[in-house]
Amino acid sequence: MRRIKATFFVLHAQPLLEVHLDFQPLIQIRIHLSRHLNIYATAYTTEMNQRGRGRGSWRGGRGGQNRSQQYSSESYSAGVNGGQSNGTDNSHGGLVNIGVRGWRNSKAADSNDGGIGKLREFLERKGSPPSGPPAKITKSRTEGDVFIISVRPELVERMLHLNGFSFAGASLTVERWGNDHLPVLSISPFDQGVAGQPQGQNGFVKQAQPDPSQIGPSSTKAALTQVLAKRYNPSLKLLDLSALKQDPDLQQLGVFATPATESKFFPVLMKICDEVWDTPAKKAESVESIIVSTNNLATVLDITTLAATFPSLKNLDLSNNLIPDFEALKYWRWKFRDLEHLVLTNNPIGSLLDFKKTVMRWYPKLLKLNSAEVRTPKDVQNQQNPIQVLPPYFQDEAEIGAKFITDFFPLFDVDRDTALRNFYDANSTFSVSVNTHAKRVQHEESNHNGPTSWDQYIRKSRNLLKITHLSARQSRLYRGAQIRTTWEQMPRTKHPSLNQHPADWLIECHPLPGLPDPNGAGAPSGGVGGLIIMVHGNFEEMHPQTGKTIDRRSFDRTFVLGPGTGVGGIRVVSDILVLRGPGGSEAWGVSSTYQDLSTAAAALSEPRIPHPEVPAGSGIGEPRPGKSELQVQQEVLAIELSFKTSMKLEWAAKCLMENGWDVGKAWVNFQELVAKEKIPAEAYLVVN
Amino acid sequence: MTPGIAPEDVLVKISTEASTAFMNDYHHALQSRRNTISSFYIPPSSMQGGKPIPTIVMNGNILQNGGAVQEMFENQMPPTRYDTQSIDCHVLNPQYAPEGVSHSRSAASTMTILVIVSGTVRFSEDRNDPERQFSETLVLVPNQDRRAQGQRPKDFLIQSQNFRVVV
């Protein structure tokens, strides 16, 4: 007997239990729920036949035969006959997966590839028909002790025939195999060998004795999965959990047999939901509505896990229950933050005086209560943010703002000294303040990130609400050379690429009058014009030694640029930075932002005149037959850097190659080399 | 140091006290004294080259002047609750004196200030409604015309404002 390890749910004990059970031949039935939900229920033939008998399967078929016909019309053709199984997977172009085990015990397993090469050769040779083309394994992979091969359907029988063959001294097991990217839920039919369990009869056969302790945990789980499938409507994105006690399948499982099993039932069902839709995105995408009506609920406490499992539910029907008041609903006071429609008809709570008012207060996005419209989407939008969110206002002057931003942030990440030399002077000012109370975006990962530490910044933070003494306010305002010292002490950062991740940024810019005139006589005057640039975004903080990302922060940073002697004839008058916890970029919209700047930046990097080394029709930087996409990209980068530096393409490519094809780094590197006079004259393009 | 510029400690003291007081008054006006909102802004004029000031941008929307901000808050905005969590400021120009305006010699009357504010705003009276994180950058300039403003004229007015809901 081979033993496999499996994880199961147990209704009567703790919900998650790891057990060993004996492995026997399987058949697999794929239940199509929707594009997003595919369940492989794995079952023994005998059990399937028994289970199919006497009650409707969730697609209306009866018995194994009917099922097989039903699914064969879909993507899975099941032959549920006498242990014969199938494994056609149309998503792989009609290939059938076959699992081969036992080869790990062979002599070949000592070779470098673990014997896979020899095994593959063996299977192809032995699986070849006496005449005709030799057998070919189209695809293969290894999962633990299983070598999974994908072959064309006509080869399946020949491959299965190799079951029990001897390969390099080891006996092979060859059988059909499920598709691994989908959850495989095992049903063990007779609960044989389940650790610590009596060797009982088939739980499903023993219907006269629906004691959950007698039901194999795995079979219960599979059965519940099927109940779930039966109650899910993919086109409506609706999960109908109404009148559960009247469900013959659940009755048969005995989940309502005792209060103990009943109380476990719903959490287990939710656990299964968590596996079926295993990410918050899948849940939100697949289940928008849930009906929990007609369940005799006097409180939502019994089904409170519903909120944890489906936090972004839009429509919830709790009608025909016994919910008396808001006390019974309080467990969901802060849940379902996206709820748009709540039905509480035929519950005592509905006759309370403040019913509508309270429900509306609890669920700020609620549009409909019972059958009445209580808010319009516009109302909801207005109460969230009544000032309409528009794309950034970016009113540049001669592309100075766009150029500064595209140059500055890559430099700030890799070479702060150069950033200072290029743009800051003795009168530039910089300060940083930390907003430790800022709202964060509610991402799934933010839970285990823990509270952000601000230790590295807090001693510099010039939050005037906290720093009230004049001396501290003075010492935390950095001017000229002090900025260098400050930046040296600040952690290394990595901002997202402006070109590749424009949606991570929101940048606005407009002209600003009245700035100090660097050439002024020192007398009061109306000043000179410049630009003010507001940047909102995020960055990763890098470990100083390992370079690994250790934190993620959001920031708001405003620059005031005026005429000066820096690169491009500008200087930073003022650079003022606010740091806060990760806040995402959802608030300014994902698609519509940054258009102006990205257009401006693109205009900067796009050659407006033809490159002297790239005459029209040369094909450099363009796709050509036989040219890899990578090469095209590298050529484009080389042209871009060549324009920026006036270096020949060959030298630009060399510089890029040494900087990992990162234009920002290459540009910095170029500037350093220029400063050290390390770039020979021949590297530059000849300007006519 | 250039002659005529006030010492650093004076600049820091005036700018930091003025900006924290200004933001306090301004948000108070947005919340409960909306009929005074326009008095926080410089009167409409134009900068060199003809571009109009003040420049007021809220979530990407351009508002022509303080009157437009007041109009929006009086007619379109629900009750609004601001919670300022951090403020920082720099003196932008310590010697600002637009032409045609006689200036006194005090540092406050020739100083322009860059202010950055981070905080939350709730567009409702109900504490249970969600708060949004905002970031706001303002440029304050000395109030050149202190006669018209009632009993307590403002020292500074908004020349440039950029407000964004960021979370």
Automatic annotation (TrEMBL), chain A:
Residues 55-64 have a biased composition (Gly residues). Residues 400-579 form the NTF2 domain. Residues 50-92, 608-627 are annotated as: Disordered. Its main location: nucleus. Pfam families: LRR_NXF1-5, NXF_NTF2, TAP_C. InterPro entries: Leu-rich_rpt, LRR_dom_sf, NTF2-like_dom_sf, NTF2_dom, Nuclear_transport_factor_2_euk, NXF1/2/3/5-like_LRR, NXF_fam, TAP_C_dom. It is found in: Nucleus. Keywords: Cytoplasm, Leucine-rich repeat, mRNA transport, Nucleus, Repeat, Transport. Residues 632-687 form the TAP-C domain. One of its GO terms (cellular component) is nuclear RNA export factor complex. One of its GO terms (biological process) is poly(A)+ mRNA export from nucleus. The keyword Magnesium does not apply. It comes from the Eukaryota. GO terms for molecular function: RNA binding. SUPFAM superfamilies: L domain-like, NTF2-like, UBA-like. Belongs to the NXF family. Involved in the export of mRNA from the nucleus to the cytoplasm. This is mRNA export factor MEX67. It comes from Endocarpon pusillum.
From TrEMBL, chain B:
Coiled coil: none annotated. Residues 18-165 form the NTF2 domain. GO terms for biological process: nucleocytoplasmic transport. Pfam families: NTF2 (PF02136). InterPro entries: NTF2 (IPR045875), NTF2-like_dom_sf (IPR032710), NTF2_dom (IPR002075), Nuclear_transport_factor_2_euk (IPR018222). This is NTF2 domain-containing protein. It comes from Endocarpon pusillum.
